[in-house]
Amino acid sequence: MFEKTALRTAKILYALAIGVGVIWLAWLCLTSLPVWAAVLMFCLGLPLLALAAAPVAAGGAMLAGVVIGLVVVISHSFARRVRCDD
Fold this sequence. Notes:
Blueprint lengths: L1 H31 L2 H44 L8
Helix pairs in contact: 1-2
Protein backbone atom coordinates (compact mmCIF):
# COMPACT_ATOMS: atom_id res chain seq x y z
CA MET A 1 0.00 0.00 0.00
CA PHE A 2 2.84 2.39 0.85
CA GLU A 3 4.65 1.89 -2.46
CA LYS A 4 1.50 2.27 -4.54
CA THR A 5 0.43 5.48 -2.80
CA ALA A 6 3.92 6.99 -2.82
CA LEU A 7 4.47 6.18 -6.49
CA ARG A 8 1.08 7.49 -7.61
CA THR A 9 1.52 10.72 -5.63
CA ALA A 10 5.06 11.24 -6.94
CA LYS A 11 3.97 10.71 -10.56
CA ILE A 12 1.07 13.15 -10.25
CA LEU A 13 3.17 15.83 -8.55
CA TYR A 14 6.01 15.41 -11.06
CA ALA A 15 3.61 15.80 -13.99
CA LEU A 16 2.04 18.88 -12.40
CA ALA A 17 5.42 20.48 -11.69
CA ILE A 18 6.74 19.92 -15.21
CA GLY A 19 3.42 21.03 -16.75
CA VAL A 20 3.40 24.24 -14.74
CA GLY A 21 7.01 24.91 -15.79
CA VAL A 22 6.19 24.46 -19.47
CA ILE A 23 3.09 26.68 -19.22
CA TRP A 24 5.08 29.34 -17.36
CA LEU A 25 7.81 29.31 -20.02
CA ALA A 26 5.25 29.56 -22.83
CA TRP A 27 3.48 32.45 -21.08
CA LEU A 28 6.77 34.22 -20.44
CA CYS A 29 7.82 33.87 -24.08
CA LEU A 30 4.47 34.87 -25.58
CA THR A 31 3.92 37.92 -23.36
CA SER A 32 7.34 39.49 -23.76
CA LEU A 33 8.44 38.58 -27.29
CA PRO A 34 7.06 38.70 -30.83
CA VAL A 35 5.59 35.42 -32.06
CA TRP A 36 8.59 34.31 -34.14
CA ALA A 37 11.00 35.05 -31.28
CA ALA A 38 8.68 33.39 -28.75
CA VAL A 39 8.62 30.20 -30.79
CA LEU A 40 12.38 30.24 -31.17
CA MET A 41 13.02 30.96 -27.49
CA PHE A 42 10.49 28.34 -26.40
CA CYS A 43 12.17 25.70 -28.56
CA LEU A 44 15.59 26.63 -27.18
CA GLY A 45 14.49 27.27 -23.60
CA LEU A 46 12.39 24.16 -23.07
CA PRO A 47 15.32 21.69 -23.14
CA LEU A 48 17.27 23.95 -20.78
CA LEU A 49 14.30 24.18 -18.43
CA ALA A 50 13.90 20.41 -18.57
CA LEU A 51 17.57 19.85 -17.75
CA ALA A 52 17.45 22.22 -14.79
CA ALA A 53 13.97 21.57 -13.40
CA ALA A 54 13.51 17.82 -13.92
CA PRO A 55 15.84 16.67 -11.12
CA VAL A 56 14.40 19.23 -8.70
CA ALA A 57 10.82 18.28 -9.59
CA ALA A 58 11.62 14.57 -9.33
CA GLY A 59 13.24 14.99 -5.92
CA GLY A 60 10.39 17.06 -4.57
CA ALA A 61 7.80 14.67 -5.97
CA MET A 62 9.62 11.71 -4.46
CA LEU A 63 9.83 13.37 -1.06
CA ALA A 64 6.15 14.33 -1.14
CA GLY A 65 5.21 10.82 -2.28
CA VAL A 66 7.09 9.24 0.62
CA VAL A 67 5.45 11.62 3.11
CA ILE A 68 1.96 10.94 1.72
CA GLY A 69 2.68 7.19 1.73
CA LEU A 70 3.71 7.34 5.39
CA VAL A 71 0.60 9.34 6.26
CA VAL A 72 -1.59 6.74 4.54
CA VAL A 73 0.12 3.84 6.30
CA ILE A 74 -0.11 5.53 9.71
CA SER A 75 -3.73 6.59 9.22
CA HIS A 76 -4.60 3.10 7.99
CA SER A 77 -3.17 1.57 11.15
CA PHE A 78 -5.31 3.89 13.31
CA ALA A 79 -8.47 3.30 11.32
CA ARG A 80 -11.02 0.94 12.78
CA ARG A 81 -11.16 -2.44 11.12
CA VAL A 82 -14.48 -3.46 9.67
CA ARG A 83 -15.66 -6.82 10.94
CA CYS A 84 -17.96 -9.07 9.06
CA ASP A 85 -19.98 -11.34 11.36
CA ASP A 86 -21.84 -13.83 9.22
